Amino acid sequence: MPRVLLIEDDPSVREGVGLGLRRRGHEVSAAETGEAGLALMGTFMPELVLLDLMLPGMNGVQVCRRIRETSQLPIIMLTARGDDFDIVVGLEAGADDYIVKPARTEVIEARIKAVLRRLGAPAGSRPEVEFHGELAIDRAGLTVAKNGERVPLAPSEIKLLLHLSASPEQVFSRQQLLEYVWDHSYHADARLVDACVRRLRTKVEDPAGNPRYIQTVRGFGYRFGPL
Amino acid sequence: MKRIAPLGLRTRLIAAFLLVAAISAVTTATLTYQQARTAVLKQSQDTAVSTLRDQMETQPLDLPLTQAQLQRIVTELGKRGKPNPWNVFGEYGTLRASSTSAPTSTVVTEELRRKVAAHPHGAFQRVTDTAGRPYLAVGMPAVWLHNETREPTGLVVYATMPLATEGKTVDAMVEAAKRGAVPGLAIAVIPALLAARSVLRPVRDMRLAAQRLGLGRLDTRIEVRGSDELAGLARTFNETAGALEQSVAELREAEARARRFASDVSHELRTPLAGMLAVTEVLDEDAEHFDPDTAAALRLVSAETGKLAVLVEDLMEISRFDARAAELNLDDVDIAEAVRKSLERRHWDDERVHTDLPSQVRARLDSRRFDVVLANLVGNALRHGGAPVRVSVRTQPRPDGARLRIEVADSGPGIAPEVLPHIFDRFFKADAARTRSAGSGLGLAITLENVRLHGGTLTAANGPAGGALFTLDMPLEAQA
Amino acid sequence: MTRTRPWSTARPRTPARRRTAAAATAALLLGAVVLTGCGIKPTGVIESGAAGKVVVPGPGTKGTVYFVTADGRLFPVPDRDQPSRSAAAILVKLLMGPDEEARAAGLETRLPPLDIKKQGASAGTSMLSDDTVGVGLPFKVGTLSEVARRQLVCTIASTEPGYKVVLLGPDADVGPARCDF
Question: Which domain of life is it from (chain C) (predicted)?
Answer without folding.
Answer: Bacteria
